[in-house]
Amino acid sequence: MVASLSESISENIAQVMERIAAAARSVGRDAADVKLIVVTKGHTVEVTQAAIQAGAKYIGENYVQEALAKMESLPNEDVEWHMIGHVQSRKARDVVENFAWMHTLDRLKVARRCDQFAAGAGVQMPVLLECNVSSEASKHGWSAWDEMRWPEFAEELAPVFELNHLEVQGLMTMPPFFADPEEARPYFEKLRRLRDFLVDRFPQSSWKELSMGMSNDYAVAIQEGATFVRVGTAILGTRS
Ligand SMILES: *Cc1c(COP(=O)(O)O)cnc(C)c1O
After folding, report:
1. Of 63, 82, 173, 240, which shows the fewest CB atoms inside 10 Å?
2. Does 137 score more than 70 pLDDT?
3. What is the pTM of this model?
4. What are the boundaries of each domain within the chain?
């Protein structure tokens, strides 16, 4: 069961990797600069294990409890766990202690708590700042859709860069869903420009990473500079 499951997942991963390579090539980028996160939220431990057997190196999860249960069942697997869901501040400790990366740092309170727990654990936590670059009110993330206000936004972010146990590596976004992925392009492009804007303000951070693009639009995101794409459905099928 797990063997045939991991075979079909393997084929899907190979297909996605081919599209990643093609998208990178189309804009003269090196496909090696794009990391594929296989998003296993809503899937069982068995499916997650099959994905790992099929070669997934980065696993994305949205919910702390669900992820911890999987980590416990798959203790020796050689993968990096990435938190890509909204994090409540009371879960900050679990995230810092169990995940390699957090893509969804979206407010100062959580940043301070993560820093505190990272200090306690004696680690540096790589984080991405989740930014809302569309004006959709329902989305999480620092609100950064109004370009005219980017200077104020930079001021708002400044305290994050004083937290010594957080390593800001870049930005993450989730644009509104469009059936046509081309419609998401302006948001990916805007996130990249926001990153370029912040590089000058906070040169102490590396700013290498842009986490953007999901099953429906990762090719477009790569053309706009994505270094992490977060793909679930295209590899694992629909979630229950
Ligand atoms: C669920 C989820 C994904 C994966 O979405 P698919 O459409 O299944 O590829 C990516 N990023 C985030 C933040 C998610 O919540």
Report:
1. 240
2. no
3. 0.97
4. 2-236
